[in-house]
Amino acid sequence: MAHSAKVQLKSAAQTPQTTIGIALDTAYLTSQPGNISTGIYMIDNRLNIGSYNEGQMELFTYCYPGDNVSFYVTPIDTQRGDTVSIIGINVSNGNVFGGSLGAPQPTDNTAYWIGRAINAGQQTYQIQVLITDENHNIYVINWDPFIKTVGS
Question: Highest taxon of the source (predicted)?
Fold first, then answer.
């Protein structure tokens, strides 16, 4: 019974307050050479505190300082047999995640990562996603959305 309580505490400690969902049109994305400007649809649960560009690649997420922030990817057409996973989240500008302290990390499910908004401010980050299509061809895509803490 004590083991069960530990598992519950661990999962509660990582419960995200800010959730960012990413739906990928894998059929379109795997057919496009070069730069991708559509086919990636990001949403979050923070519209009520200012997030904008919902449904676009350049989502601008607002969160509260201290929030656990989760990221998940899913193919839009699950019947195609494509799989998607996050293989990296890098920061190019800003320090909301506080470097390695709050940097998003994979969970047991590589389509789901979680990090923590440590610092006040704004940041640009790149999400890197691996798509494996129905024929086992591999594609890596990335783009750069934004995150900002409320009050900064």
Answer: Bacteria
